[in-house]
Design brief:
Layout (H helix, E strand, L loop, with lengths): L1 H24 L3 H9 L4 E4 L3 E4 L2 H9 L4 E2 L6 H9 L9 H11 L5 H26 L1 E3 H17 L11 H12 L11 H24 L5 H7 L4 H32 L3 H6 L4 H12 L5 E5 L3 E3 L2 E3 L4 E4 L1 H6 L29 H21 L2 E8 L8 E8 L1
Parallel strand pairs: 2-8
Antiparallel strand pairs: 1-2, 3-5, 4-10, 5-8, 6-7, 9-10
Helix pairs in contact: 1-11, 6-7, 6-15, 7-8, 7-11, 8-9, 8-11, 9-10, 9-11, 11-13, 11-15
Length: about 400
Amino acid sequence: MTAVLAVGSRQNTAERWERRVHLGAHPVLYPVIRGLGGLRPVLRLPGVGVLVSEAGLVREVLMNQELFVKNGPSGSGALWTPVVGRKALVNMDGEEHRLLRRRLGDLFTPRSVEGIVEPAAVVLKNRVHAGFEAHGRVDLVDCVKELAGGVISRLLGVPEDAPGRLADRELFDLGSSISSLVRLGRPTLTERQVAKGKSAVAILAGPVRTAYRESDPDTFPGRLRELGMSEDEAMGIISAFVMVGTETLVSFVPRLVALLADSGRLSELAGDRSAVPAAVNEALRFTVPSPMMLRDAVADGAIGGTKVRAGDRILLSTIHAAKSLGGFDPSQATPQQARQLWFGAGPHFCIGMPLAMAEINTTLDLLLDLYAQRPWHIAGRHVSRGVLIPGYRKLELANA
């Protein structure tokens, strides 16, 4: 009985911290969205849009590209067009999007992804080991930001010895400065925000254009050229990956580690890696790195029996759709309608998922290896406040 109570207590601790993370980011919107989601699966909110909160219906909308589009005036894709141009994949729909996605598919094979992540993973490993050896502790959030910056460097095609090369952490901060422009309650970017985004993209553009023109097939821009992309198309595609991938990764990895530590699952996973995929998948389901997705209705129709009109803004509450399925439990299979919903579904399913998973698994493998050698614990943490993507501002791991 005592052991059962201890497990339950750890589980409650894990879920309490996750709630704090969400409330830190959205102290008003989070409880409102969760509360509204519990009222009805589809709810029209006057002046706001149509809120969809049930997993099966969220998937249904994502699969229907004829009726619900991403690049409409209030859809998430349209936010980025003034910053990165028309052809950045994230802001495209229809046949044009399908053809571009097909051309990009080979860039995210396991082998290709390994070539992008491996150099950054080496830096991460050295950073974490040095921190533990010198100080007995590391800030995981800071380390993952550097990992993300290293991946950005590879996407840009920046040589390690390039003159004036930005450090990996600086590259992350640059990418983050673009993605942080978005707010849930604002459907468009202001002129000032567009100018700020363009300024950051211009800094990223230099190495991308150089790598593209040199046509080195060992670089990501060089491979885009080989696929027939124009220079501007390559720039838009890479900028989009930098914008949409960095914040969600840096949000999720520390939350994953905190969930596993708080719920007392580290020892089990360090000794049996076969349970890791289920734990990661359940952590993705429970944390919901992409808490809201936006679409525009382009014709009259219906969602779950609720009528929608052309021009309606559709708010897909992935956070309620996923969290309403229950607490964090890696032994429980995710229902079919909710599987990988945090990566989207249908034509816009996240093409960069293999890259994100490689970064996630690389970091977790490293930390589990260290835990098996010498257990560590969470020594301190602070949640981020007033951000778009919920996460930890700091998560300090220390030797036991």
